[in-house]
Design brief:
Elements: E1 3-5, H1 8-14, E2 22-30, E3 33-37, E4 40-43, E5 49-51, E6 55-58, E7 63-68, E8 73-76, E9 81-88, E10 93-107, E11 117-123, E12 126-130, E13 134-139, E14 143-150, E15 153-157, E16 163-165, E17 170-175, E18 180-184, H2 187-194, E19 205-207, E20 212-219, H3 222-234, E21 240-243, E22 250-257, H4 260-270, E23 280-283
Parallel strand pairs: 10-11
Antiparallel strand pairs: 1-21, 2-5, 2-7, 2-19, 3-4, 3-6, 6-9, 7-8, 8-10, 9-10, 10-13, 11-12, 12-15, 13-14, 14-17, 15-16, 17-18, 20-22, 20-23, 21-22
GO molecular function, one term: peptidoglycan binding
Keywords: Signal
Protein name: SPOR domain-containing protein
Amino acid sequence: MKKTIALLLAAFAFSAAANAQVVGTAEAVQFPAFLERGGNSVPLSPGTSLQAKDTVRTGAGARVLIKLTEGSLVKLGENAHFTVEKAQPVGVFKATLGVLQGAFRFTSDALRKGLKRDVEIKVKNVTAGIRGTDLWGRSTTDEDLVCLLEGNITVGTQGHPTVTLDTPLDFYRKRSDAGPVVAKVDPEKVKEWAAETEMVKDGPIGRVGGSWRVVAAAVGSRDEALALNRRVRASGYPSEVAQTPSDKVYVVQVAGLAGEPEARAVMANLRTVAGVISPSVRQGP
C-alpha cells in the first residue's frame, strides 16, 4: 500500500502552528476516541502530539494513554472529556488539565520524581494541585472524586477550605448535593477503580510503533472509498485510504494496531459500520 490518499483539509486543520508547543503525546488508544482542536474533530491516532486547548474525548469502552513531555502519564477511561486548558512545557513544566467527565489517572515518572512541576487538575468541581505523585479520579453527574495513591496533593472546591492529602488511599469526594468529605478507601476498591483507566487485554488498541492493520474494504471507486473512510472515522477509528501498486483498488484501512488480537478486536467493531465488506487483519505496511 504505497500511496495514501490524505484527507488534506483535515490535515491542514490539525497541523500544528510553527510556534505551537507540544504538551504530550497519545502513546496508545483503545478506540473509539477523538481529538478536538480549533473547532474540528478527528479520530485520535497513536503518536498524535497534544497542544494547549486540545480536547480528547473517549467513547464507550475506550481508553487513552497520554505521555506528557516531562514524563508523567495520564490515563483516561471510557466516555471521558479531557482538556489541556493551558500549558508551559519549557523550563518548569506547568499545566492545567481539565477532566469534565469520566475517570483518569495521573502518574509521575518514577525516574523524574524530583523534577519540578506545577500541574493542576480540575475535576469539574474539584481542583487538585500536584507536584509529583500518583492519583486516580473520576467525574460524574453525581460526584467528583480524587484518590491519592502515592505522594501528596492539595484538593479543594469552591466555598470550602483546601485540604492536603498525604496518606495513600485517602480520597476527597464532592457530591452534587452535599459538601466535600475526606475518607479512606479499601485497597480492593482501588483495584476496581484503577481498572477503569487501564487498557483492556486484547482490546481494540493502537500503539505508537504498532505494525498491524485492519482492511475494512477494498473497492474500485475512489469516491466509494472516501465515503466509507468518512464513516469509519466518524465512528472514532483513524482510518485512511490507500491504493494498490496498480492503482486500480482503493483500500480503507486502520493501521498502527498493537498486535493481532488487538487488530481482530478492531475488525469486529468495524463490522457494524455500513459498507465494511469482508474485513481482514494484516501485518506490515
